[in-house]
Amino acid sequence: MLKVYLKECLYFTANRLGRVISKMAEDEFASSGMSPNSAFLLMAVYENDGISQKELGQILHLQPSTVTRLIEKLASKGLLFNRVEGRLSLIYVTEEGKALEGSINECWNNLRSRYVAILGEESDALSLQLDEVSNQLEKIK
Length: 141
Prior knowledge:
3 strands, mainly alpha
């Protein structure tokens, strides 16, 4: 009976999926020398240089303390810097950080290719469905 309960439990299955996909992402992003979260933060800054820390947290669905920790780590590596303007902390990518863009994009493409090879093209639909489910559940907080 427990096996049925676990398979029908969104909490359990979502955490299981999270562990599996996190391991795949960590494996693929290892060649860039950074964690998947760090790489995705850099990707967000590539797209919007001068983005605020608050916006980064909203885009990446991360807590402010996590965003701060990631920024500090990437800044210590010389990949980005922040500039305080009034009450805002704006994040910019350095030339050294820009040099990693190709490698990070390759890691992202490798990760996507890896799970598409397993799940097929319906992986895009699954990602969109999981995003919508997350949006719905966040609304009830």
